[in-house]
Amino acid sequence: MVSSSKTVKLSMELADAASWYCAVVLLALILIASIRTNSVSWDEHVRGGQLSTRPCDEIYVVGEGETLHTISDKCGDPFIVERNPHIHDPDDVFPGLVIRIIPSTDGGGHTN
């Protein structure tokens, strides 16, 4: 009978440890899913043009649905084509294209 109670006690300890392990793993998965959800919604927020008041970086990656005209308006750089000799056709702009932007400080003048 002593052996049986030790077996039951060992089984209870093992089940308790396993349930704690499962709880920790479940919590980690929830946190990871939460982080991924927040990063996706932030990414959609940026691509949706919601941050149009944000200053443009000198290196700009064209987003979905953007044109040189919309980027020029957004970033205040009317000389995008001149600064980017790799753009042979201004109508051939696609998501992922990297361009150089220099926002004008005087509301439309050339700053070089």
From TrEMBL:
Top-level taxon of the source organism: Eukaryota
Keyword annotations from UniProtKB, A to Z: Membrane, Transmembrane, Transmembrane helix
A Pfam short name: LysM
Residues in coiled coil: none
Ranges annotated as spanning the membrane: 18-35
Residues covered by the LysM domain: 60-101
Protein name: LysM domain-containing protein
Organism of this sequence: Hibiscus sabdariffa (roselle)
